Amino acid sequence: MKPFSYTKARTEEEVIASLSSPGTRILAGGTTLYDLMKLDVETLAHLVDIASLQGLDDIRLGPERIELGALARMSDVAGHPELAARYPVLAEALAKAASQQLRNMATLGGNLLQRTRCAYFRNGLHYPCNKRLPGSGCAAQEGLDRNHALLGGSEACIAVYPGDFAVALVALDAEIETLGPGGRRRHKVAELHRLPGSTPHVETILEPEEMIIRIMVPAAPYGRASTYHKIRDRESYAFALTSAAVALDIEGDVIRSARIALGGVATRPWRVPDAEAMLAGQKFDERLAREAGRMAMRGAQPGRHNGFKLELGARTVAEAIRIASDRGARL
Q1: Which domain holds residue 46?
Q2: Domain count, the chain
Q3: Is residue 80 part of a domain?
Q4: Does some domain include residue 277?
Q5: Which residues contact 27 (CB under 8 A, 6 or more apart)?
Q6: Residue 255: strand pairing partners
Q7: Res. 210 pLDDT band, cuts 50 70 90
């Protein structure tokens, strides 16, 4: 790890001012950033610690929306009983991520901005990686691609977005509020992460001097009939091979509308409107769920080692639809 300077911010304005200096990064929980610094993926000059900022760790559940501060800890949100009852998809996405120790440290804002776990990205200059060194190439294209993306990739990058929480937020049409030199802005979480295209090192739409301060989830009837279903190599402490966030608006036994987002298979959280449309106005049955699962994976382009994700992803979606439907039937 290279030497760096450190300050502790007292106000949001201090953070924004600090970010104007080249090579400055925000430190919140640090559960991802420290790793990348040790690997020399992040070679920063200055850290500005925002952990003590006031008013950014709140959890508010109102009649019109849920508001979550960017510094709220993953474990606090996952364990919030009212949130878990109203939006099980959010609680499950957080509870199935990392270990309890990491969830006790990691913040929601940092979780949204975590970087890929692609081994070629993290394992140094021995491997070409356009995310780490633009223009150097993508070793995964001809390498081991078992854990890489089938959707949203490009010739420059096929790294999977690793998070769970953002997938659930995309399914729920959530927004973030950010603060930068120009003031506050709102963005759809679905727009936060960029497709890699020819510039995979530019991962989000945020400006260099902009920070996430709040996450907002609209209150809606589909919140309770929801789930986050995650398949991984081991039951805990592992990233998704495939995952699906599903939320259903159900009246009686009819699915009025559906929201589905995929994780573990794409370069960013991946919404699947065609699969959602297939469910709208239909009564749940296993055949319909399987068809929607296959539709969700339409357009996937498997590599040499990750073709198994086609069927696994479809089954993951189908099972998530069944779980959400069962919850809706009990309301």
Answers
A1: 1-52
A2: 2
A3: no
A4: yes
A5: 6, 33, 47, 48, 49, 50, 51
A6: 250, 282
A7: very high
